[in-house]
Write a structure and sequence with these properties.
The protein is an alpha/beta fold. A 10-stranded mixed sheet has the order 5-4-3-2-1-6-9-8-10-7, sandwiched between helices. Helix 7 (about 120-130) crosses helix 8 (about 135-145), helix 16 (about 350-360) runs parallel beside helix 18 and helix 21 packs parallel to helix 26.
Length: about 700
């Protein structure tokens, strides 16, 4: 086939047939499983207005973007539907097909449902090959497979006549074995008292929707984090021995669905004394071609969901549950608290707590690589930032949780290190990395200011060449990824991929997000305030104004980048040790990444008219008075620093030490020869003035 995606899928499928796969049972003896997808209010199926909406700066609609990105697919679509004039695509005859074509190439519920229901199609084919008749096949499908979409607010959508409710119903009509679970709120009197119900509905195959079950609840079930509560209320409607959780940014492939009955056999044969209760497998990130940032995220996910989990599984034996698409032993988890905890704040990263619960209660985890599903990732700078912030805050909350304490008390010394390496340790390492950059920068500045760069007659001068060599060893971290891509895609493609990452500014992106993780992990430990951040899964076809990027990144990156840059400039003025570039190149690289990355990866950042508009917008925002954080820097700054009010004594001590450091640097500047000709050098306010000017 000419399609790269078709080649990739066929190559993986054929290679997987040579892996160690359990023998497949016949259809009547295979294990049964259900799939569950939590859904809130994301895109279901793109409508015409979604596809034709054009952003002012770029002038690109979502449909045009998809037509360009999937040019061959679009031509095949026109040929398949016998459309010779593209102006006909919005005719009544073709509009639904166009909406479906676009939705199947985005991160929508339609794509997820269409992919998951391929499991039913694959099982029907296997049953026909075994010689079962149509009636028997229908009975087998009801027995062996089911799909429940937990559309938490579907009832409200219906009441509000939201078009997404109609799109969900269209999916139920297209896939009659799909079920939708939602929470219904029924008001019983004028005082506002209500009854809450968990409701399951399906298509009646005659164009209507029929209710199957209605379970009255003791109250509003959403009292914690939304996503786990959504899963917990819907799990009672699933059937089968095993439960697969699938997020709504995922998809399945027909050829991989053929191997699901083989995969479920892994639960039957435990490799150790503990029963297999969680079964994980590979994910392919299908959004890698959307943008440079999306490609970086795809490679990052490849490193974790393939290389990382492979090592965590064997030899470390410390893989947990990191999210969808793992398959659970349903009976084991239903009798041990469910598949996700949902307490507000502490369970922000709800998936990992199923893994902790599994370890404490005696379950084992497997990870297999002969099956894969597709997965979408965030594709824009602000989306990725919010995603990394959410994960960092979630890991900080984990480190404060009783679950981690209980696991740590029960693991042996070596597995404890493995668990640290595979989870919280990554974020602690990021904090230590940024702390090291900060300490080294100010230590060198202090030595220069106070003329302490030598011991006797010998200068404390590191070998710049050696330092650059040691810094270059960090590139060795790309070797495992290079090897994996080489085996799967070919060595030349792997080399081209790695080179493209460096040329397009990949190092800036990854260094930038080291600080993102460090900032939000440390802030949550010191201050708290972890919260769910909706990243959105749409395409980035617009320019983000400078003022918006400033609000996003100033507190976490821009202020730190400017502070370190000022410190390095001062060090350059006062140092006498030589080899300035050899000692500071890595620190300058960090500063550049903190300051430049948000703008380097922003569309049309360097377009002159856009720059002028951004500057005018930003200066207006800086001068604004009142009206909310979006209209005034003063209001934004007050809200951004409001957490200082509730700081504990230990946290206040940390920030006080940082403030004392500024006075220390100011004293060093004051005692230098910078103010020898200034008649007011001895006035007490001069150090304060110097510090404020230097670190503005």
């Amino acid at each position: 086939p000419k399609s790269k995606e078709a080649k990739r899928r066929l190559t993986f499928f054929v290679n997987s047939l040579f892996m160690d796969i359990p023998n497949s049972p016949n259809m009547q003896d295979m294990m049964s499983w259900n799939v569950m997808t939590p859904f809130y209010s994301e895109d279901v199926t793109y409508n015409k207005s979604d596809l034709m909406k054009t952003e002012k700066t770029l002038g690109v609609s979502v449909l045009l973007y998809l037509q360009t990105l999937y040019k061959a697919d679009w031509q095949h679509f026109l040929e398949r539907n016998k459309i010779k004039d593209e102006t006909q695509i919005w005719s009544k005859k073709h509009v639904d097909e166009v909406r479906r074509w676009a939705s199947l190439r985005a991160q929508t519920l339609s794509r997820t449902v269409s992919g998951m229901m391929l499991n039913e199609k694959a099982l029907r084919l296997l049953a026909r090959l075994e010689g079962h008749d149509s009636e028997t096949i229908d009975d087998l499908m009801c027995e062996k497979f089911g799909y429940v979409v937990a559309c938490q607010v579907y009832g409200n959508m219906k009441k509000n006549q939201d078009g997404k409710a109609d799109d969900i119903e269209n999916l139920m009509h297209r896939f009659p074995h799909m079920r939708v679970a939602y929470i219904d709120n029924v008001r019983i009197n004028r005082q506002g008292e209500s009854y809450f119900y968990s409701v399951l509905v399906k298509s009646d195959r005659a164009g209507g929707i029929t209710e199957i079950y209605r379970v009255r609840l003791p109250g509003n079930p959403v009292i914690g984090e939304g996503k786990p509560e959504n899963q917990n209320h819907a799990i009672i409607f699933t059937r089968g021995e095993y439960l697969q959780t699938i997020d709504m940014n995922q998809e399945a492939y027909f050829e991989e669905a053929l191997k699901m009955r083989n995969l479920l056999e892994e639960f039957g044969g435990g490799e150790g004394a503990l029963p297999t209760t969680i079964l994980g497998f590979r994910e392919h990130i299908f959004t890698g071609s959307v943008s440079s940032l999306a490609n970086y995220m795809a490679l990052q996910e490849t490193s974790f969901v393939t290389l990382g989990q492979r090592v965590l599984n064997k030899p470390l034996c410390s893989r947990l549950h990191y999210g969808h698409p793992d398959v659970f032993d349903k009976l084991f988890f239903m009798t041990r608290g469910g598949v996700s905890k949902s307490s507000k704040g502490i369970n922000l990263s709800e998936d990992i707590f199923a893994g902790y619960n599994n370890v404490v209660r005696g379950g084992a985890v497997k990870f297999k690589e002969y099956v894969q599903v597709g997965k979408g990732r965030d594709v824009g700078g602000q989306q990725i930032y919010k995603f990394e912030a959410k994960l960092s805050q979630g890991n900080a909350e984990q480190s404060l949780s009783r679950d981690v304490y209980r696991v740590a008390q029960r693991l042996d010394f070596f597995r404890l290190f493995s668990m640290y390496f595979g989870g919280i340790g990554h974020y602690c390492g990021n904090v230590l990395t940024i702390l090291t950059v900060y300490v080294v920068c100010y230590l060198m500045l202090g030595l220069a200011l106070f003329d302490c760069e030598k011991i006797g007659d010998r200068k404390i001068t590191p070998s710049g060449t050696l330092q650059m060599l040691l810094g270059g060893m960090g590139l060795m971290n790309t070797i495992p990824l290079f090897a994996t891509l080489g085996v799967e895609r070919g060595w030349w493609s792997s080399f081209h991929e790695i080179c493209q990452v460096f040329i397009t500014g990949g190092p800036l992106h990854f260094m930038f997000h080291i600080q993102t993780k460090a900032f939000y992990f440390a802030q949550t430990i010191l201050v708290g305030g972890a919260k769910y951040r909706a990243t959105g899964r749409g395409f980035v076809t617009q320019h983000s104004p400078f003022a918006e990027n400033f609000r996003f990144f100033a507190s976490s990156h821009i202020y730190l980048g400017m502070e370190l840059s000022a410190a390095l400039l001062l060090m350059g003025v006062y140092t006498g040790a030589g080899q300035y570039f050899g000692r500071t190149w890595s620190l300058w690289l960090a500063c550049v990444s903190f300051l430049a990355a948000p703008f380097w990866f922003n569309p049309l950042t360097f377009e002159w008219q856009v720059v002028r508009n951004d500057y005018a917008n930003w200066t207006g925002w800086m001068r604004g008075q009142g009206g909310g954080a979006l209209k005034s820097w003063e209001v934004w700054w007050t809200e951004e620093n409001s957490f200082y009010i509730g700081l504990g004594k230990a946290s206040k001590l940390f920030f006080t030490c940082k403030a004392v450091l500024y006075l220390f640097i100011g004293w060093g500047i004051l005692r230098s020869d910078l103010f020898e000709s200034d008649p007011v050098v001895n006035k007490p306010w001069v150090p304060v003035r110097v510090v404020l000017v230097t670190f503005m």
